[in-house]
Amino acid sequence: MSSIEKLIEDFCPNGVAFKELDELGSLYGGMSGKSKDDFKDGNARYVTYMNVYSNIAIDTSKDDFVKIGIQEKQHQLEKGDVIFTGSSENPDECGMSSVLLEDTKEPLYLNSFCFGFRLHDTDMFIPDFLKYLFRDTNIRKQIAKSASGVTRFNVSKKRFVKIIIPTPPIEVQKKIISILDKFTQLEAELSAELSAELSARSKQYEYYRNHLLTFDKSVVPFSDLGDVYKFQYGKGNTIPTIGGEYPVYGSNGIVGSHHEYNSEDAPVIGHIGAYAGIVNWGEGKHFVTYNGVICQIKSGIDDRFGYHLLMKQNLRELARDGSQPFVSYDKLNSVKVQIPDIDTQRRVAKILDNFDLLTNGISEGLPAEINARRKQYEYYRSKLLTFQELPA
Fold this sequence. Notes:
The protein is an alpha+beta fold. It is about 35% helix and about 20% strand.
């Protein structure tokens, strides 16, 4: 008998109670009444959408500031609060959770695209246990069912508070935390090793791409990216999964199929949310939802040269301005680029296409290995967080 099985036998031999979230705590919203200018030269720290989405525990070292007036009544985060993202382009990525594990020395606020959950009895759960519980596959499935939408999905608070979670004894929580902390550290070390190799390949490719796309300023002056592409947000009022012959692109690749298309052989830029600024190549005729930006190449520009030019830009960083990542026309059009003659464009594009193919061929096994490690971790985490329900 394992140590965790022994604890369960000692503390909850007949199972554990399962409770709805609205029995255990209450929800609160993020900041309201904020404009884009409020996120410039702010006087108070706040938690961004990406901080919640990317971390199982809130990263309190982030220097993200917002203006908060003396008379403003905004919710302040407290230790043990569980924060959730409110929307995404598919239900499976809605309601990603992150937990505030520590008391903060100064007030900490929440962006308007997320919401928080606060326990009535903070002694009932250890915050470190909650950071694992709400990322577990079984709970994530319930969270996904609480979301609805067409091309963008939003969590229904009314359905969300009916999510049911186990309430194991504190001693059992402590043991699970100790096991998962060690397993998480091991998984992180293995993933870091593989990611370092992948990063090295990517940096090598980026070096040659930047070199080939940098020209003598006296010969090739700087222009606006708007001279390369006409940008247009995708179509947002059509369900992308009704089926059809054309692939549907959202903010980060194919999300379904459709009987219509609105772009052909062109890049698709992630427009809003966690994948804002990511560039994908849309092969052949395809449909782009509102979560993506259609890139219509202008006359005199080689389409593949335009794609590599987009890949050279740091559009991900460009999107991180404000409460939620977002790419606007103004931001895209104002990016400065160099556009050589068409023959040079084609020559550079051909070299980069070949290098891209070579790099992806070498690296394709690494992401698969990283994903395999992650799935193994998720399997063991789910095993530890699955409990027998106490009979009514």
